[in-house]
Amino acid sequence: MSMLRGMSGIIRSYAIFNTKKSKNVIINITRTNKTFTHSIRVQNSKSKEPGELIKWMLLMIPGTSFGLGCWQVYRLQWKLELIDMLQAKSNSEPVPMPHDFKELERMEYRPVKVKGEFLHDNEILIGPRALIENNVMLQRTGSLISDPKKNQGWLVVTPFKLSDTGEIILINRGWIPQSLRPKEKRQASMVKGEVELTGIVRLTEVRSPFMPKNNPEKNSWLYRDLVQMSAHFDCAPVWLDAKGIPDPPEGWPLPNQTRVTMRNEHFSYLVTWYMLSAFTAVMWHRYFIRKLPLL
Question: What's the predicted TM-score (pTM) here?
Fold first, then answer.
């Protein structure tokens, strides 16, 4: 009996021990689960931080494009003022032709006075070119508002021998229509002897990417290449656009064929940047603030 009582006591103690042990295990497991759940919540909260960073980084796109649009507004105003300044320069009082032709590199669009005689035998035609009226080039052939009598013609370029130095320069006498291309129809305009005139200084013209090259052997001239022309005519690399009355006698070239040419695409740039800013701002607000799909 004493042995059975001893065994029952051991079993009871073991049962109590196991019960306590199981409670401890449950408690530990429960605490571990709480800790694990808390750690998941912390990680979830931290995982939202990169999304917030991307959100504000994407906001830089509309902000930056808006700033670039404002910069193009400033550039457009600057370019328009520069063009107005060059136009005013071309209408300023003429000055004598400098003896050092290198000074002309800083005098483009500046009127100068020259005296000498034309060498009509070496005349060339550059074109086809559209007529320039009031500093505006007329519409090309094919336009609904173009005038076929004015949009297809040639520039008459004649060597000019200076009286004081004997140097030979090139004078763009003006524009003629296709019908006056033969010299026989322009004999009245080929003045002989010494003349005095005013011309606008022009520098070398940059050839357009798709424009064919000049061909001096075939007497085909499409653009103003002063280095090539001076080598061909054995003259100085100097070019003047002749100024004169806008309505010369019949058969004479129309003078004043100077157009202030400067690339000015700032308006299209500012429209592009502002449109990009508006579009990306709407998309950012739709996706991040209203939580709507992008499409």
Answer: 0.66
